[in-house]
Amino acid sequence: MRWSRYFIPTLREDPADADVVSHKLLLRAGLIRQLSAGIYSFLPLGQRVAIKVMQILREEMNAIGGQEFFLPALHPAEIWQESGRWYAIGDEMFRLKDRKGTDMVLGMTHEEVFTTIARNEIRSYKQLPQVWYQIQLKHRDEARPKSGLIRIRSFIMKDAYTFDVDRAGLDKSFLDQREAYKKIFMRCGLQFLIVEASSGAMGGTESNEFMARTPAGEDLIVSCENCGYAANLEKATSRLAEIKDEAGPDAPEEFPTPGVRTIEDLTTFPGGAEASRQIKSLVFFATIDGEPRPVLVLLRGDHQLHETKLGDSLRATAVRPAQPEEIRELLGASAGSLGGVGAKTKSRDLRIVADSALKNRRNMTTGANKDDHHLRGVDIARDIPVDDWFELRTVEAGEGCPHCETGVLEIFKGMEIGHIFKLGTKYSESMGATVLTQDGKEVPIVMGSYGIGVERIMAAAVEQHHDDDGIIWPRSLAPFDVVVTITNMKQDELRTAGEKLYEELQRAGLEVLLDDRDERAGVKFKDADLIGIPFRITIGKKISDGVVELFDRSAKQSEDVKITEVVTQVQRLTSVQQ
Ligand SMILES: [Zn+2]
After folding, report:
1. Which residue, 128, 223, 374, 469, is most buried by CB atoms nearer than 10 A?
2. Comparing C-alpha atoms, which of 144, 151, 140 is closest to residue 23?
3. What is the pLDDT of residue 146?
4. 453 in helix, strand or coil?
């Protein structure tokens, strides 16, 4: 490819609205342009990188028996109604009507379409397992698209689906995908970790996220260096130091607390209690089986609720904090004076759930469900009829690891680059995809689903591989293997040598960009550094001695090489594993 004819609109300055490194550099290097909020076009250089990513995805999916499909992006709402996701998913789903007024959906994932194919075509265990995948556009109406390619509304995804006759089959399929994902991210030159994650709106029983560690990430990852435990904050748990409570009175004692509204207020109130000796009481409405139900959530006073954990624990499709008037109706007091003691006598349908850190605590202080009054001496096991114990608190850095004795948890930012789910029978049951087993019994197909975002891989690669001068593409994703830079197009000797080398490198099977623009050498070097091609061969004055300069973008080092040997050397360098 000749740079003079190739469309690479590089920018000198950082675009004003770009907030993260990958966004700035992908724009500046001329890989992408924004069409609208969260909607981007790939320019030729960006498309070359995307194709490399997709090729790696195909190879690794095919290696585990994956069969490539291509499904429509536009779906009838009907299949989403069958699965229930039409109702469970909110405004993130693009919904539209066709000319006849039929509801339609732009797919965010393709469980429904693949399940439709499976239920129509697969009858017997003999046809299983199946591993199906596609590389397709997905649509998601993000509330706040941002960070360039990191949170977008229209994106390319490789999504795979497995179909097995039983759980054991699913376990194997899941493991195959997990291993393939590891290979994919290693080949893409990404540093990543695998974390336990919430399954959210996808449903299912178990899920792993693949996270690229980067400050541009939007997820918080909790990890233990000691044992390798890693989880998304929305799923993470911790081991807390045990608190020994002194025995309290035989029954809770009410005391007036005028003006006390918060946990903090009560820590300084005379006769109050430190935060870790208080019970925080929060009222939520959780949508379970389509019905909003009141839930009283109890946590240690110094702990913060994680709402995703609450929703997941309750298997709710949505949770929201109750309004002040709803709280008063349920418990007869305002938010600053609530508690679990006697709560069920005030409101019979109220479900009480508590965080595990409160287990066996006694002599605690909490609201009395009476404005400006609290109770002290509360023994949770004795005084509060807790319906369910869950892990609800937000884990904090420095807490103990839940998996090992000595590890201490750290928290850092990560970007989700892949997510794999054991779906189980959620879709096959709701949509009626069954098979006959060997014994002639009809059972729902056991499914898994597995997704990787192409743009996320590109963004993560740039976040993890760049410097002040620009992108440093991992060799596997680089738009070209090597750029040949002719420092002065007016000198015949340089131009002829450059052209000849360009031909030779291409014959050797390399992807070559020839910088034949009529520009100063300094401009050419800056652009080549910015777009991040792994190697640059500079044709300059030394050509009269048969010598060129070979520059390694990642090491930022150059060496003089004989022009007769440079092709073999670049071949050797580019064939070395990442
Ligand atoms: Zn640990």
Report:
1. 374
2. 151
3. 84
4. strand
CA 345 to chain centre: 43
| Ligand 1 centre distance from Cα of residue 227 (Å) | 4
In whole angstroms, give the CA distance from residue 408 to residue 239.
Answer: 9
| Per-residue model confidence (pLDDT) at position 575 | 82
Residue 384 Cα, ligand 1 centroid: separation in angstroms?
33
Q: Round to whole Å and give the CA distance between 199 and 88.
A: 13
CA of 176 to the centre of ligand 1 (A): 26
How confident is the model at residue 203, as a pLDDT?
58
Q: What is the CA radius of gyration of the chain?
A: 30
Angle at 127 between CA 126 and CA 133, to 5 degrees: 150
Rounded CA separation 31/41 (Å): 9
pTM value is 0.86
Name the helix (H) or strand (E) containing 241: none
For residue 106, what are its two tokens?
A: 């732009």
Ligand 1 centroid–CA 184 distance in Å is 27
What whole-number distance in Å separates Cα of residue 209 and Cα of residue 376?
Answer: 43
Would you tell me how many other CB atoms lie within 10 Å of the CB of residue 552?
14
Q: Give the E-state strand segments of 442-556 in sequence order.
A: 442-444, 446-453, 466-467, 470-471, 482-486, 512-515, 535-539, 547-552
The DSSP string of 395-429 is P-TTSBPSSSSS-BEEEEEEEEEEEEEEEETHHHH
Q: Do residues 430 and 113 touch, judged by C-beta distance below 8 A?
A: no
CA of 394 from ligand 1 middle (Å) equals: 17
Distance 465 CA to ligand 1 centre (A): 29
Given a contact cutoff of 8 angstroms between Cβ atoms, the answer to whether 221 and 411 are in contact is yes
Structure tokens at 154: 């229209």
- Distance from the alpha carbon of residue 120 to the mean position of ligand 1, in angstroms: 46
The strand pairing partners of 535, in sequence order, are: 482, 552
What is the model's pLDDT at position 16?
86
d(CA 546, CA 535): 19
CA of 414 to the centre of ligand 1 (A): 19
391 contacts 309 by C-beta, under 8 angstroms: yes
The answer to whether the CB of 525 falls within 8 A of the CB of 531 is no
How far apart (Å, rounded) are the C-alpha atoms in residues 328 and 371?
10
**pLDDT averaged over 10-residue windows placed end to end, the chain, 578 residues:** 97 89 97 96 98 98 98 97 92 96 97 97 97 97 90 96 97 97 98 84 76 92 93 92 90 95 94 95 93 96 96 91 96 95 93 96 96 96 96 96 94 95 94 96 97 97 97 97 97 97 97 97 97 97 96 96 96 77
Q: With H, G, I as helix, E, B as strand and everything else as coil, classify residue 218.
A: coil
| Residue 557: C-alpha distances to residues 58, 70, 241, 534, 553 (Å) | 34, 44, 51, 11, 7
